[in-house]
Amino acid sequence: MSDSMRPKATAVERGPVSRDVPGLSRRRRYLVLAICCASIIVVVMDISIVNVALPAIRHDLHTSVSGLQWSVDAYTLVLAAFLLLAGSTADRVGRRRTFQVGLAVFGLGSLMCGLAPSIGWLVAARTLQAVGGTMLNPVAMAITATTFPDPAERARAIGIFGSMSGLSLGLGPILGGALVDGFGWRSIFWINVPIVAAAIVCTALFVPESRAARARRFDPVGQTLVILVLGSVVYAIIESGRSGWTSPVILGLLAVAVLGVLGILGYETRRADPLLELRLFRSVPFSSAILMALFALCGFGAFLFVTTQYLQDVRGMSALTAGLCLLPVGGLVVVLSPLTGRVVGARGPRLPLVVAGAALALGGGASLWLVPATPLPAVLAIYLLFGVFLGTVNPPITNTAVSGMPRSMTGVAASLASTGRQTGTSLGVAISGTIVGSSVAHGGTAFTGAEHGVWWLVLGLGLGVLALGLLSTGRWASETAGRAAALFEGIDRGEHPQTTSLSHR
Question: Domain 19-208+271-503 is in which class?
Answer without folding.
Answer: mainly alpha
